[in-house]
Amino acid sequence: xxxxxxxxxxxxxxxxxxxxxxxxxxxxxxxxxxxxxxxxxxxxxxxxxxxxxxxxxxxxxxxxxxxxxxxxxxxxxxxxxxxxxxxxxxxxxxxxxxxxxxxxxxxxxxxxxxxxxxxxxxxxxxxxxxxxxxxxxxxxxxxxxxxxxxxxxxxxxxxxxxxxxxxxxxxxxxxxxxxxxxxxxxxxxxxxxxxxxxxxxxxxxxxxxxxxxxxxxxxxxxxxxxxxxxxxxxxxxxxxxxxxxxxxxxxxxxxxxxxxxxxxxxxxxxxxxxxxxxxxxxxxxxxxxxxxxxxxxxxxxxxxxxxxxxxxxxxxxxxxxxxxxxxxxxxxxxxxxxxxxxxxxxxxxxxxxxxxxxxxxxxxxxxxxxxxxxxxxxxxxxxxxxxxxxxxxxxxxxxxxxxxxxxxxxxxxxxxxxxxxxxxxxxxxxxxxxxxxxxxxxxxxxxxxxxxxxxxxxxxxxxxxxxxxxxxxxxxxxxxxxxxxxxxxxxxxxxxxxxxxxxxxxxxxxxxxxxxxxxxxxxxxxxxxxxxxxxxxxxxxxxxxxxxxxxxxxxxxxxxxxxxxxxxxxxxxxxxxxxxxxxxxxxxxxxxxxxxxxxxxxxxxxxxxxxxxxxxxxxxxxxxxxxxxxxxxxxxxxxxxxxxxxxxxxxxxxxxxxxxxxxxxxxxxxxxxxxxxxxxxxxxxxxxxxxxxxxxxxxxxxxxxxxxxxxxxxxxxxxxxxxxxxxxxxxxxxxxxxxxxxxxxxxxxxxxxxxxxxxxx
Length: 761
Hints:
Shape: elongated
Largest sheet: 5 strands, parallel
Strand order of the largest sheet: 3-2-1-4-5
Distance between the termini: 49 Å
Strand content: 5-15%
Number of domains: 6
Structural class: alpha/beta
Radius of gyration: 37 Å
CATH class of the largest domain: Alpha Beta
């Protein structure tokens, strides 16, 4: 497990490549926002498209005509058809888009004192001069001929018309650039320029004519001559787009030089480079490029071609995870938010809700091409904040109290098989199976005692996974220690789990464990099934996403029982969490419900699960779902128990097992009062995580002490009682010894009786 530090944060941030540019943009030496341009053109917004071009190009009309379009070689659309004709779209933007009015921005720009000479009026020199002039510097452009443009003058008019070229070159005068025509730069002229100007740039054409041996740093274009910059990044490549990029690079270097700033800092991503972005294209429908009927696109043709852009982005984790989508950000941003929340000493920890809404299931790590594990980050944050007392106790209080119940006197139990003093095996059903399917627990235990040799003991309790999810490691170790003591008292038998979470928790705690599915693979399924041929979609438990053996066992057992299996799109190691894991269902019901919807939307068939929480989560939203043990033991479908019934079920199964299997004379404890709770009130209590037993305790306290408030107008009573960390209030009607519960709510405030001066009595 790692620690949340600035260093580890940067390592995690580097794994998320969502903010990496598309492949075409990274390959473009000027890094034109191709996604934004295509999006604008698709909507017919050519003005916006032109605005984007003018942001990245100082001579957009020229460059859109003569660019060699290296972006097409990296366009991911070509893996599903043809690459997008971005250059033709750029030309369409310049033809149909109106130039954004900038007023007299250049006129009001504060001119800098520094003077810069640019020698050579080809593409590189023109762009260098324009970039510097746009930054407010006083630029003189020196050209040996009586025309600007260099190689641009040789371009066919059908590609770059003279009219377009002249319009673009006139913009140099508008920026205040001075132009010296018919001026050659030789060694003597260069010395003069160095004396007269604060910096000098020499284009490659000028360099080739100078009879000087000049050394150039290709990263910064700084030469071995003081204040002189020169040449191209890649002199062996003669491309207009590279010249334009070098013009920008030269301008940046010159400005940094004049400001006494580092010339090399953060220059790695200038020019073309490989994007680390991951974009899946398997599901993209192939289509061919739209070519213009004439030389250039009509507006309609441009829109059609722009619509072919697949808008490259990495959404692998967001597509899979409802939690990540809910907060509308990407893991890199989440990691920074978690770290900031983690480092707050005083004040509000605003990211607690987000941190506690993660199911900790690890799906994001599987889906991410670089293995970004948001669950691990959230888990470490929970553990540290719990340890430092920065996590509000209320966050996971209900779940932790439920765990305490499972490992308390009402459920926890350790027994050898009746008539035996040793146990070769010990069945550990777990707290969730006991709460949801108590009859299944009883049936499975009876079957194993009949068919396994050497004695099958029984341990009822909770494995401690709830404490682990809550970030309370000391509590987890305490619960595991209780399980170890029980295991030791039975002679350290082979533990058999009915719950995937228990299975994984015991494995990590180095307690010998085997799944019930492996046992049934060995001894056979208990009920003879007919050839049903019914199709069931298997939902894999997220806690065992990497346990191929257990996953295969479930499928084989279902097939042996006569079922056909459908594999879901998100199955095995890619499986979704059901929305219960990580205690999400207690902390963020909205995220939990969205997670369930995503799970059950994958297939119209009924679902097969081997985690009872998955079964219950799906059934609560109307999806027919059966636990593998229900099918194998021929147990009829049971309704989903609410929170109160889950407590009662655990109590009941313990009493029934002790009575029916161990022959003890026991009766379930009953309430000391008579009461009635309607279905609507029960649902309200369930939503607010108020148990029937909590309400009963309040009523029993009121009955015994007569501590209650009476509202005569409504003829209702109110009474309260603090149980643990929570104060419960119940509104009820009372008739003789019968109580009708009308409403129940709870809060974490405590009330103390004070005198008139505020002193506690």
